[in-house]
Structures are given as structure tokens and as C-alpha cells.
């Protein structure tokens, strides 16, 4: 009998933003795996899942979530995590993996699935989409992500400020992820591109410590790693001007 591994997007933090399908997938699973760092502190995915399923179903698995420079350590952590989940799949027919945001957008689930398809014969991998941080920030701030024919560009600032600057020079809305430690570079790029005034920043969306502010208020100090930025283009011509 084949085993099922289902990556479930649980949104950016607000437990009410987990979809009905996501909740059903979590409740139907034999166990729900949540990623944690080696400090074993409860992560955002686990905190969200606990609103919908019993803690007895949750299994913490260590991932090198904050490792970006030591490739050998990161690969070893992926292998160890894959081996642990492979054990769970041999014991249970249905394992869910809870990931913040969406499992197909910059998610640890991608690497786990790639690892497990080589370890578990006939493994069936599925995903349940989740609300992304950019969607939640747009709703909470009133920012419009796209109009008419505008493109939408998502940039992880861990790729470097050059990628962000190139995107800001384009015609559509730019969303930036993972830029907490590069906040000063982001503010500078926004100012140079003329997009600072209309840009909005947010972190800890849907949580008690939530912060949503105009990007113009940022002073360049380091921000939380899971920060999100929306920088819309200038929109002229009134209603439907971008059609």
C-alpha cells in the first residue's frame, strides 16, 4: 500500500486563514509533522495547527530553517529530517506536513518531498494550498496587488539587493520576502526607485505582535526575518487605467 505525504499550507499565522480543505487534511492525517529549529521552540506552523488538531497528533522534526551559508550542514539536516519522516510514513499511511504560507512558495516542504520520493517507494505526494503573507498583508493594509495588465513579481531578498532593484525598475507590483536583515538595503532601493511612498511592510501577520506600517516609516534597522513588503507601481488614469 502506498503512503501519502500531504503538504498543507497553514497561512501566515492567523489560524482563521487556514482553508477548510487544509483543516480537513490536518484532521484526517495520522500524524502532522511540523518543522522546528534545533532549539525545539514551537514554530508558527505548529502554533497555527494547534488551533485545529490535538497536540497528540503533532510530531516535531528538526530542519536547518535558518541555515543559508553552510551547505553541508543544511544538506545533513534535510537528510536527517527526511529519514525521520520516512520512519513515520512506514508507520502511518497518511502523514501531513504543515508549512506556513503555501507549500509551493518558498517552502521547506519542497525539499522534504524531494528527499522522501527517493526514500519511500510509491510515495504519493500532494499539496493543499495556503494563504500567502502577501495576500494577508494586502488585505490588512488595503494595498492592491495587481490591476489590469500589471505583472506581479515576488523576490526573496536573500537573493541579493540587485534582484530587488531590477524588479522595482519594472512595471508592476513587487513583493519582497525574507529581508529582515537587509532592511536598510530595501529602504534604499525603494527610495531610489521612487516607490517608497506607496510601499507597505508587515510582519507577524495575524499574531498578537503583528505590525503593519508604511515602508516610509522604516528607519533601516533590522526587522524580523519573516517580513513582507508590497511595493505597488504608480497608478494613474483612474479606475481601469491599467486595463
Please provide a brief summary of the model.
The protein has 243 residues and is an alpha/beta fold.
Describe this structure in words.
The structure is a single chain. The protein has 243 residues and is α/β, with parallel strands linked by helices. The protein is built from seven helices and ten strands. It has helices spanning 20-28, 44-49, 71-91, 108-119, 133-141, 161-168, 183-193, and strands at residues 4-9, 31-36, 58-62, 94-99, 124-128, 152-156, 173-177, 200-203, 211-214, 227-231. The strands form two sheets. Strands 3-2-4-1-5 form a five-stranded parallel sheet, with helices on both faces. Strands 6-7-10-8-9 form a five-stranded mixed sheet, sandwiched between helices. A hairpin with a 7-residue loop joins strand 8 (200-203) and strand 9. Helix 3 packs across helix 4 and helix 6 (161-168) packs parallel to helix 7. The longest helix is centred in the middle third of the chain and has 21 residues, at 71-91. The chain is elongated. The N and C termini lie far apart (51 Å).
Amino acid at each position: 500500500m502506498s503512503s501519502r505525504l500531504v503538504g498543507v499550507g497553514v497561512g501566515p499565522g492567523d489560524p482563521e486563514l487556514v482553508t477548510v480543505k487544509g483543516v480537513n487534511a490536518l484532521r484526517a492525517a495520522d500524524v502532522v509533522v511540523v518543522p522546528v529549529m534545533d532549539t525545539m521552540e514551537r514554530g508558527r506552523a505548529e502554533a497555527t495547527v494547534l488551533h485545529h488538531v490535538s497536540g497528540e497528533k503533532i510530531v516535531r522534526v528538526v530542519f536547518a530553517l535558518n541555515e543559508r551559508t553552510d551547505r553541508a550542514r543544511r544538506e545533513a539536516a534535510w537528510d536527517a529530517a527526511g529519514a525521520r519522516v520516512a520512519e513515520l510514513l512506514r508507520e502511518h499511511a497518511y502523514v501531513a506536513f504543515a508549512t506556513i504560507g503555501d507549500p509551493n512558495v518558498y517552502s521547506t516542504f519542497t525539499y522534504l518531498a524531494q528527499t522522501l520520493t527517493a526514500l519511500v517507494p510509491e510515495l504519493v505526494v500532494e499539496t493543499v494550498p495556503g494563504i500567502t503573507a502577501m495576500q494577508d498583508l494586502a488585505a490588512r493594509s488595503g494595498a492592491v496587488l495587481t490591476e489590469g495588465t500589471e505583472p506581479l513579481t515576488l523576490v526573496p531578498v536573500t537573493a541579493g539587493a540587485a534582484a530587488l532593484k531590477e524588479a522595482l525598475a519594472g512595471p508592476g507590483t513587487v513583493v519582497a520576502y525574507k529581508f529582515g536583515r537587509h532592511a536598510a538595503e530595501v529602504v534604499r532601493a525603494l527610495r531610489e526607485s521612487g516607490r517608497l511612498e506607496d510601499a507597505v511592510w508587515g510582519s507577524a501577520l495575524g499574531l498578537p505582535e503583528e505590525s503593519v506600517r508604511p515602508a516610509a516609516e522604516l528607519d533601516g534597522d533590522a526587522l524580523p526575518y519573516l517580513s513582507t513588503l508590497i511595493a505597488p507601481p504608480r497608478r494613474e488614469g483612474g479606475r481601469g487605467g491599467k486595463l
